[in-house]
Structure formats: C-alpha cells, structure tokens
Design goal:
Elements lengths: L8 E2 L2 H10 L7 E5 L5 H7 L4 E5 L3 H10 L6 E4 L14 E6 L5 H11 L3 E9 H8 L9 H9 E9 L4 E2 L6 E8 L10 H13 L5 H4 L7 H7 L13 H16 L4
Parallel strand pairs: 2-3, 2-5, 3-4, 5-6
Antiparallel strand pairs: 1-8, 6-9, 7-9
Helix pairs in contact: 1-2, 4-6, 7-10
Length: about 260
C-alpha cells in the first residue's frame, strides 16, 4: 500500500506494547489516536479494555480500520481531519499516536493550546523534534518549541525507535515522547498570547542579542531588560522560561501604565 498523507507504519509488536505502556492505558481511560493508519497501534490500545477513538483522514485506511474493528465494541473509527477534530467535546482523555511527521509541530501546539481536557499525550515523532522539545536553556536545540511546550507540559523522551522498524522507513530515527499536561503553566503569566509573541520574536533572530531581537516588539528594549535584571547582550537561547515570562510581564505592565 502506498504511504498516504505522509505516514510511516509501525508494526513491531514489542514497540507498540511499549508505547501503550508509557501511556499507562487503563480500562477506565478514553484514548484518542490520530492517524490510526492500518490499526496496528489501535489494536494494542484496545486490548487494555479502554474506550478508543481512532481517527484517520485517508479514505482507504479508514475503510481498512472499519473492517478490522467492526466487532470491537470499545473502538470508534472516525474519518476526520486531525487539525479540525473537536477536542473540547471530549471528557478527560489521553492521546496515543504515531502522528504524521509533516504536521507534528502544528499538532503538538494544538493539543497543548486547544486540547480541552487532555491528560497526557504519548506521541511517536522524529527524534530531532523530540530532542528540541526537551532541550534546556543554553543548548543549541532550545527554541520556541522547547519553551512553549515546557511552559504547559512536563516532557520526556521515553525511548527511541530505529527508522528501519517503519514501513516505509523514514529518513530519520524516531522517539516516543510523553507530554503530561500541567494543571497550570510552569510560570504564571497574565497574557499567554503575549508570552508566546515574546518567545517567537526573540527566536526569530536567535543569533542577535536579546535587546536587538525584541526591537520589533517594544521600544527601548535595553531599558526594559535592565529594569528586570536581564543583561541586554544575552542571546535568546540562554534565557529560561522564567526570564521570558518576566519580559512578557514587564511589557504588559508598560502597556497598562497610564499615559502622562
């Protein structure tokens, strides 16, 4: 079968079982799987006795899934677009999925920003993406994805999967990433949209000093940074999540100050 919608299929029983184990799937859980493909992972999830919603956009694979699970009372097969599926309509749920690599980042952002009652997500993603997500401040891989994910979730790499175990094999190895949604952001901010804008603006020119990176967002960024104890000549990748939050809060405060 040709590879629909950029999917690489994983059929190794031992690996599939480990993925479900990482998510600690229990009979009382609701588990959503995006990009269910031919249903190999779906079957291992369903074996745990939980309710499963398997979502697949490709028409041919959707039919394969419908046929394969026609007698499984705990499995619901939906033909939906991952980026349009109404997550807010669900009760508390887990995501266990080998998501299409070409939309990995948009999916992760959507889950964490619009995921409704999401408890945790166990996602098979490209190794490089997973390592960017867990990267600490000061590392070369640290960037927008690192800050925004770590702000709202606890992230860890459970294990790696060699590319040769997929059909067809991708060009890179993969990683099983576990994201546990935090009850509240790691650092409190009054405006999450402003925080995200600060982070994206800073990393748009990551090799520049932070004061120069923020010039398009605020006037006199050097003064603001000095006021909150951040050296203006630091690079964006050296700033912690807490420091980005301080910048966002300082910008917010300046906006709220009455005009003279």
């Amino acid at each position: 079968m040709a590879r629909p919608l950029g999917q690489h299929f994983l059929n190794h029983p031992g690996i599939l079982k480990r993925i479900v184990d990482v998510a600690d799937v229990r009979p009382e859980d609701l588990v959503v799987e995006f990009g269910a493909g031919k249903g190999s992972l779906t079957a291992f999830i369903a074996e745990r006795g939980c309710r499963v919603i398997a979502i697949e956009l490709d028409r041919t694979l959707y039919r394969v899934l419908r046929e394969r699970f026609r007698f499984a009372e705990n499995v619901e097969i939906l033909r939906e677009d991952i980026m349009r599926f109404d997550l807010n309509s669900l009760p508390p749920y887990k995501i266990v999925s080998n998501i299409p690599y070409y939309i990995t980042t948009p999916i992760i952002f959507r889950l964490l920003e619009e995921g409704g009652s999401l408890l945790l997500a166990v996602l098979t993603v490209q190794k490089e993406v997973a390592e960017r997500i867990i990267a600490p401040a000061g590392s070369k891989r640290y960037g927008v994805l690192s800050v925004m994910v770590q702000m709202v979730a606890d992230a860890e790499i459970a294990f790696y999967i060699p590319k040769g175990l997929f059909v067809p094999p991708p060009k890179v190895d993969s990683a099983v990433l576990k994201l546990t949604k935090r009850a509240s952001p790691r650092v409190p901010v009054s405006d999450m949209r402003l925080f995200k804008k600060v982070v994206k603006t800073a990393f748009r020119q990551r090799r520049k000093y932070i004061a120069n990176s923020l010039k398009g967002l605020i006037s006199n960024p050097k003064d603001l940074l000095n006021d909150i104890g951040i050296t203006p000549t630091r690079r964006p990748e050296t700033l912690t999540i807490e420091e980005f939050a301080r910048i966002a809060e300082a910008i917010q405060s300046r906006r709220e100050e009455p005009s003279p």
